[in-house]
Amino acid sequence: MFIAQGFKNENSFASYLFGSFLLFVAANIGSIPLVMVTAIYSHYSGRPMPTGMDGFATYFDSNLYLALMLLSFVFVLGALYLILKKSHNQNMLSITTSRPKVDWSRVLFSFTIWAAFLIISVTGAYFLSPEEYVLNFKPIPFLILVVVALLLIPIQTSVEELVFRGYLMQGFGNLSGNKWFPLLMTTLIFGGMHYWNPEVSRVGNLIMLEYLAVGLFLGVITLMDEGLELALGFHAANNIFGALLITADWTAFQTDSVLKSVSEPTYGLTDVLLLFITYPVLLYIFSKRYSWTNWKEKLTGKITANNTSNSI
């Protein structure tokens, strides 16, 4: 059982709280290169330092900003490895999957399904309402973006999954002894951390439903599939193709993408209804391919200690 792989005598909930604090510290240390480069640029350009994340995103070249912003996740990944080894007597595999090794076919399947959906959706939206987009494609910046996206975005998305659906899922499981509480808490925390995204201030709080829905969906497929593989593929496809295909002045990722939205951002009932169609359809596809059964037990049942853990 995936969530039970963190059940060890030394894994008190307090150790997970302390580990989460160390991950927060690592993320802040990882942001130092971005601050330093910004300070150097400010000194030589004469421009004042930006005061918020929106300002950082547009302060200099978007590809350089993206690379520096994503660099912090490398620090978090290193910290997570050390925390697991020193504090929890576990390895990375134990918070990734219940299988003997990572099933990369699952990662690829999930990645392909969601990448195809995004490509079709963006292409369809462009041809249905071309006046809402401008062609933003510039060959050299786009090629640099491709390199940055393929190298660093998978690290970012993998770290988020390892922390939320892996480390914290097991931590809250240790606290509660059941599965619904970890699913609920990781959904709320994951959604809540997106509250400070620029999209929320421009579109309104209703868009928080999307972040919560994504967090819930990723938690469900993790518990049903006994591992992070499907969540890893989905999250990587979402952020990679989100960065490559389309950008806007009000999004968290402002990139040298193919298209740029110039329409006034909105989020309404139609968008909410799409959530209740898209993710259930994906759940149906995954459940049929991987023969998921016993949904109630896997999502809400009690956790029993796992004697065949991947920990070391």
From TrEMBL:
Keyword flag Membrane: yes
One Pfam family it belongs to: Rce1-like
Keywords assigned: Membrane, Transmembrane, Transmembrane helix
Domain CAAX prenyl protease 2/Lysostaphin resistance protein A-like, first and last residues per copy: 142-241
Listed transmembrane segments: 21-44, 64-84, 104-128, 140-159, 180-197, 203-223, 230-253, 265-286
Protein name listed in UniProt: Type II CAAX endopeptidase family protein
